[in-house]
Amino acid sequence: MGDQKKIPPALSFATGGLGGIGGWIIVHPFNTVAVRMNLASATGAANELGFVPFANALIKKEGFFGLYSGLSAGITRQIFYATARLGLFESLRDEVAKYRPMDIWSRLGVGVITGSMAAVIACPAEVSLVRMSNDKALPLDQRRNYKSVMDCGLRIAREDGVTAFWRGCGPFVSRAALVGACQVGTYDQFRAMLKGYGAKSDFQQVFGASMMSGLLYSVVTNPFESAKNRMAFQRPDPVTGKLPYTGTIQTLTSVAKAEGPLALWNGFWPYYLRCGGHTVGMFVIVDVLRKAYFQYTA
User: Which stretches does DSSP call E strand in 76-213?
Assistant: First the structure.
Protein backbone atom coordinates (compact mmCIF):
# COMPACT_ATOMS: atom_id res chain seq x y z
CA MET A 1 0.00 0.00 0.00
CA GLY A 2 2.83 2.30 -0.82
CA ASP A 3 3.19 4.17 -4.12
CA GLN A 4 0.54 2.87 -6.49
CA LYS A 5 -2.09 3.89 -9.02
CA LYS A 6 -5.35 5.45 -7.89
CA ILE A 7 -7.54 2.64 -6.56
CA PRO A 8 -11.28 2.92 -7.36
CA PRO A 9 -13.33 2.55 -4.14
CA ALA A 10 -15.16 -0.54 -5.40
CA LEU A 11 -11.84 -2.22 -6.22
CA SER A 12 -10.47 -1.32 -2.79
CA PHE A 13 -13.39 -2.96 -0.98
CA ALA A 14 -13.57 -6.00 -3.31
CA THR A 15 -9.86 -6.86 -3.29
CA GLY A 16 -9.69 -6.26 0.46
CA GLY A 17 -12.47 -8.78 1.03
CA LEU A 18 -11.09 -11.37 -1.40
CA GLY A 19 -7.59 -10.98 0.00
CA GLY A 20 -8.91 -11.35 3.54
CA ILE A 21 -10.83 -14.52 2.64
CA GLY A 22 -7.86 -16.08 0.84
CA GLY A 23 -5.48 -15.26 3.67
CA TRP A 24 -7.91 -16.58 6.27
CA ILE A 25 -8.32 -19.97 4.59
CA ILE A 26 -4.54 -20.38 4.92
CA VAL A 27 -4.31 -19.43 8.60
CA HIS A 28 -7.64 -20.68 10.02
CA PRO A 29 -6.00 -23.73 11.69
CA PHE A 30 -3.71 -21.40 13.67
CA ASN A 31 -6.74 -19.42 14.79
CA THR A 32 -8.48 -22.59 15.96
CA VAL A 33 -5.45 -23.60 18.04
CA ALA A 34 -5.03 -20.04 19.38
CA VAL A 35 -8.69 -19.82 20.46
CA ARG A 36 -8.63 -23.31 22.03
CA MET A 37 -5.40 -22.60 23.92
CA ASN A 38 -6.66 -19.26 25.11
CA LEU A 39 -9.98 -20.60 26.39
CA ALA A 40 -8.29 -23.69 27.87
CA SER A 41 -5.94 -21.59 29.97
CA ALA A 42 -8.35 -21.54 32.88
CA THR A 43 -7.87 -25.32 33.29
CA GLY A 44 -4.10 -25.16 32.78
CA ALA A 45 -4.20 -27.39 29.70
CA ALA A 46 -2.61 -24.83 27.39
CA ASN A 47 0.24 -24.19 29.82
CA GLU A 48 0.92 -27.89 30.29
CA LEU A 49 1.04 -28.78 26.61
CA GLY A 50 2.33 -25.77 24.68
CA PHE A 51 1.57 -24.90 21.06
CA VAL A 52 2.80 -27.94 19.07
CA PRO A 53 1.72 -30.65 21.56
CA PHE A 54 -1.64 -28.89 21.99
CA ALA A 55 -2.18 -28.88 18.20
CA ASN A 56 -1.12 -32.54 17.94
CA ALA A 57 -3.54 -33.50 20.71
CA LEU A 58 -6.35 -31.66 18.93
CA ILE A 59 -5.62 -33.45 15.63
CA LYS A 60 -5.49 -36.87 17.34
CA LYS A 61 -8.82 -36.21 19.06
CA GLU A 62 -10.77 -34.60 16.20
CA GLY A 63 -8.76 -35.33 13.05
CA PHE A 64 -6.95 -32.85 10.82
CA PHE A 65 -10.15 -31.14 9.74
CA GLY A 66 -10.89 -30.34 13.36
CA LEU A 67 -8.44 -27.49 12.78
CA TYR A 68 -10.98 -26.06 10.34
CA SER A 69 -13.88 -25.98 12.80
CA GLY A 70 -15.74 -22.72 12.29
CA LEU A 71 -14.21 -22.01 8.85
CA SER A 72 -17.54 -20.81 7.45
CA ALA A 73 -17.80 -18.28 10.29
CA GLY A 74 -14.19 -17.21 9.66
CA ILE A 75 -14.91 -16.57 5.98
CA THR A 76 -18.10 -14.69 6.88
CA ARG A 77 -16.05 -12.57 9.28
CA GLN A 78 -13.60 -11.69 6.52
CA ILE A 79 -16.41 -10.75 4.13
CA PHE A 80 -17.43 -8.04 6.59
CA TYR A 81 -14.20 -7.26 8.48
CA ALA A 82 -11.49 -7.36 5.81
CA THR A 83 -13.72 -5.78 3.18
CA ALA A 84 -14.68 -2.92 5.49
CA ARG A 85 -11.26 -2.47 7.08
CA LEU A 86 -9.18 -2.09 3.92
CA GLY A 87 -11.91 -0.38 1.91
CA LEU A 88 -12.70 2.16 4.62
CA PHE A 89 -9.00 2.76 5.34
CA GLU A 90 -8.11 3.60 1.77
CA SER A 91 -11.26 5.70 1.27
CA LEU A 92 -10.69 7.74 4.43
CA ARG A 93 -6.95 7.95 3.77
CA ASP A 94 -7.61 9.50 0.35
CA GLU A 95 -10.02 12.01 1.90
CA VAL A 96 -7.56 12.98 4.64
CA ALA A 97 -4.81 13.36 2.02
CA LYS A 98 -6.79 16.22 0.48
CA TYR A 99 -6.27 18.28 3.63
CA ARG A 100 -2.91 17.18 5.06
CA PRO A 101 0.17 15.11 4.16
CA MET A 102 -0.23 11.37 4.76
CA ASP A 103 2.58 10.93 7.26
CA ILE A 104 2.88 8.10 9.77
CA TRP A 105 0.60 9.85 12.28
CA SER A 106 -2.13 10.37 9.71
CA ARG A 107 -1.97 6.69 8.78
CA LEU A 108 -2.12 5.61 12.41
CA GLY A 109 -5.14 7.82 13.04
CA VAL A 110 -6.99 6.59 9.97
CA GLY A 111 -6.14 3.01 10.92
CA VAL A 112 -7.59 3.41 14.42
CA ILE A 113 -10.85 4.92 13.15
CA THR A 114 -11.47 2.50 10.29
CA GLY A 115 -10.35 -0.55 12.26
CA SER A 116 -12.87 0.30 14.98
CA MET A 117 -15.66 0.81 12.45
CA ALA A 118 -14.93 -2.51 10.75
CA ALA A 119 -14.94 -4.33 14.11
CA VAL A 120 -18.41 -3.08 15.02
CA ILE A 121 -19.69 -4.23 11.63
CA ALA A 122 -18.05 -7.67 11.88
CA CYS A 123 -18.65 -8.45 15.58
CA PRO A 124 -21.62 -10.84 14.99
CA ALA A 125 -19.45 -12.95 12.68
CA GLU A 126 -16.60 -12.80 15.23
CA VAL A 127 -18.83 -14.15 18.03
CA SER A 128 -19.98 -16.96 15.73
CA LEU A 129 -16.37 -17.78 14.82
CA VAL A 130 -15.25 -18.05 18.46
CA ARG A 131 -18.19 -20.26 19.41
CA MET A 132 -17.86 -22.59 16.42
CA SER A 133 -14.06 -22.85 16.73
CA ASN A 134 -14.18 -23.98 20.37
CA ASP A 135 -17.45 -25.93 20.51
CA LYS A 136 -15.85 -29.36 20.06
CA ALA A 137 -13.48 -28.68 22.95
CA LEU A 138 -16.39 -28.69 25.39
CA PRO A 139 -17.77 -31.77 27.18
CA LEU A 140 -20.50 -33.49 25.17
CA ASP A 141 -23.30 -32.26 27.43
CA GLN A 142 -22.16 -28.64 27.08
CA ARG A 143 -21.65 -28.49 23.31
CA ARG A 144 -23.93 -26.32 21.23
CA ASN A 145 -23.33 -28.45 18.10
CA TYR A 146 -23.75 -25.72 15.53
CA LYS A 147 -24.36 -27.10 12.03
CA SER A 148 -23.24 -24.03 10.07
CA VAL A 149 -22.57 -20.33 10.46
CA MET A 150 -26.21 -19.67 9.55
CA ASP A 151 -27.40 -22.13 12.21
CA CYS A 152 -25.00 -20.57 14.71
CA GLY A 153 -26.28 -17.07 14.01
CA LEU A 154 -29.95 -18.04 14.23
CA ARG A 155 -29.44 -19.93 17.49
CA ILE A 156 -27.46 -17.13 19.11
CA ALA A 157 -30.28 -14.71 18.27
CA ARG A 158 -32.96 -17.13 19.48
CA GLU A 159 -31.27 -18.51 22.60
CA ASP A 160 -29.18 -15.57 23.84
CA GLY A 161 -30.78 -12.56 22.19
CA VAL A 162 -29.52 -10.29 19.43
CA THR A 163 -27.33 -8.34 21.85
CA ALA A 164 -25.21 -11.49 22.33
CA PHE A 165 -23.75 -10.83 18.87
CA TRP A 166 -21.90 -7.87 20.39
CA ARG A 167 -20.57 -9.63 23.49
CA GLY A 168 -16.86 -8.94 23.43
CA CYS A 169 -17.40 -5.97 21.10
CA GLY A 170 -15.39 -3.71 23.45
CA PRO A 171 -12.15 -5.71 23.34
CA PHE A 172 -12.75 -6.57 19.68
CA VAL A 173 -13.01 -2.86 18.79
CA SER A 174 -9.99 -2.05 21.00
CA ARG A 175 -7.99 -4.79 19.32
CA ALA A 176 -9.13 -3.72 15.85
CA ALA A 177 -8.15 -0.10 16.55
CA LEU A 178 -4.67 -1.23 17.60
CA VAL A 179 -4.41 -3.58 14.60
CA GLY A 180 -5.43 -0.77 12.27
CA ALA A 181 -2.72 1.44 13.72
CA CYS A 182 0.04 -1.15 14.13
CA GLN A 183 -0.58 -3.19 10.99
CA VAL A 184 -1.30 -0.51 8.40
CA GLY A 185 0.91 2.26 9.78
CA THR A 186 3.96 0.08 10.39
CA TYR A 187 3.43 -2.02 7.25
CA ASP A 188 4.24 0.94 4.99
CA GLN A 189 7.18 1.89 7.21
CA PHE A 190 8.66 -1.62 7.26
CA ARG A 191 8.17 -2.01 3.51
CA ALA A 192 10.04 1.21 2.80
CA MET A 193 12.80 0.10 5.19
CA LEU A 194 13.17 -3.28 3.46
CA LYS A 195 13.29 -1.58 0.09
CA GLY A 196 16.10 0.60 1.38
CA TYR A 197 17.96 -2.50 2.56
CA GLY A 198 17.86 -4.00 -0.92
CA ALA A 199 14.65 -6.06 -1.09
CA LYS A 200 13.78 -5.41 -4.73
CA SER A 201 10.81 -7.66 -5.47
CA ASP A 202 7.28 -6.80 -4.36
CA PHE A 203 6.93 -10.24 -2.78
CA GLN A 204 10.05 -9.83 -0.62
CA GLN A 205 8.84 -6.45 0.58
CA VAL A 206 5.26 -7.59 1.22
CA PHE A 207 6.32 -10.80 3.00
CA GLY A 208 8.94 -9.19 5.23
CA ALA A 209 6.89 -6.11 6.11
CA SER A 210 3.81 -8.23 6.79
CA MET A 211 5.60 -10.59 9.17
CA MET A 212 7.21 -7.72 11.10
CA SER A 213 4.01 -5.70 11.40
CA GLY A 214 2.18 -8.92 12.27
CA LEU A 215 4.63 -9.59 15.13
CA LEU A 216 4.22 -6.06 16.47
CA TYR A 217 0.44 -6.05 16.49
CA SER A 218 0.28 -9.62 17.80
CA VAL A 219 2.21 -8.63 20.92
CA VAL A 220 0.12 -5.50 21.42
CA THR A 221 -3.32 -6.99 20.74
CA ASN A 222 -3.10 -10.53 22.16
CA PRO A 223 -4.55 -9.48 25.57
CA PHE A 224 -7.57 -7.93 23.84
CA GLU A 225 -7.97 -11.08 21.74
CA SER A 226 -7.97 -13.10 24.96
CA ALA A 227 -10.60 -10.83 26.51
CA LYS A 228 -12.74 -10.93 23.36
CA ASN A 229 -12.64 -14.73 23.21
CA ARG A 230 -13.68 -15.13 26.83
CA MET A 231 -16.49 -12.60 26.55
CA ALA A 232 -17.79 -14.11 23.31
CA PHE A 233 -17.74 -17.70 24.60
CA GLN A 234 -18.92 -17.15 28.20
CA ARG A 235 -22.07 -18.61 29.73
CA PRO A 236 -24.18 -17.10 32.55
CA ASP A 237 -23.48 -18.45 36.04
CA PRO A 238 -26.04 -21.25 36.64
CA VAL A 239 -26.77 -19.94 40.16
CA THR A 240 -26.75 -16.16 39.82
CA GLY A 241 -27.50 -15.90 36.10
CA LYS A 242 -24.78 -13.27 35.78
CA LEU A 243 -22.03 -13.24 33.16
CA PRO A 244 -18.49 -13.52 34.60
CA TYR A 245 -17.07 -10.93 32.19
CA THR A 246 -18.80 -7.60 31.72
CA GLY A 247 -16.30 -5.30 30.00
CA THR A 248 -12.85 -5.04 28.47
CA ILE A 249 -10.97 -3.69 31.50
CA GLN A 250 -12.89 -5.93 33.92
CA THR A 251 -12.06 -9.01 31.83
CA LEU A 252 -8.38 -8.13 31.50
CA THR A 253 -7.98 -7.44 35.21
CA SER A 254 -10.00 -10.51 36.26
CA VAL A 255 -7.91 -12.86 34.13
CA ALA A 256 -4.64 -11.25 35.25
CA LYS A 257 -5.60 -11.54 38.93
CA ALA A 258 -6.93 -15.10 38.70
CA GLU A 259 -4.32 -16.63 36.37
CA GLY A 260 -1.44 -14.16 36.23
CA PRO A 261 -0.72 -11.44 33.63
CA LEU A 262 0.94 -13.88 31.20
CA ALA A 263 -2.39 -15.71 30.85
CA LEU A 264 -3.44 -12.83 28.61
CA TRP A 265 -0.85 -14.04 26.09
CA ASN A 266 -1.84 -17.72 26.15
CA GLY A 267 -1.93 -19.01 22.57
CA PHE A 268 0.48 -16.30 21.42
CA TRP A 269 2.47 -18.34 18.87
CA PRO A 270 -0.52 -19.68 16.93
CA TYR A 271 -2.01 -16.18 17.21
CA TYR A 272 1.15 -14.70 15.68
CA LEU A 273 1.17 -17.31 12.93
CA ARG A 274 -2.44 -16.41 12.27
CA CYS A 275 -1.80 -12.64 12.28
CA GLY A 276 1.47 -12.69 10.35
CA GLY A 277 0.30 -15.39 7.96
CA HIS A 278 -2.99 -13.67 7.30
CA THR A 279 -1.30 -10.32 6.72
CA VAL A 280 1.10 -11.89 4.21
CA GLY A 281 -1.64 -13.85 2.44
CA MET A 282 -4.02 -10.90 2.34
CA PHE A 283 -1.58 -8.30 1.00
CA VAL A 284 -0.05 -10.69 -1.55
CA ILE A 285 -3.50 -11.60 -2.89
CA VAL A 286 -4.61 -7.96 -2.89
CA ASP A 287 -1.46 -7.00 -4.81
CA VAL A 288 -1.97 -9.78 -7.39
CA LEU A 289 -5.64 -8.90 -7.91
CA ARG A 290 -4.93 -5.21 -8.33
CA LYS A 291 -2.10 -5.79 -10.78
CA ALA A 292 -4.41 -8.06 -12.79
CA TYR A 293 -7.12 -5.38 -12.77
CA PHE A 294 -4.80 -2.63 -14.03
CA GLN A 295 -3.35 -4.93 -16.70
CA TYR A 296 -6.86 -5.83 -17.87
CA THR A 297 -8.06 -2.21 -17.92
CA ALA A 298 -4.86 -0.72 -19.39
Answer: none
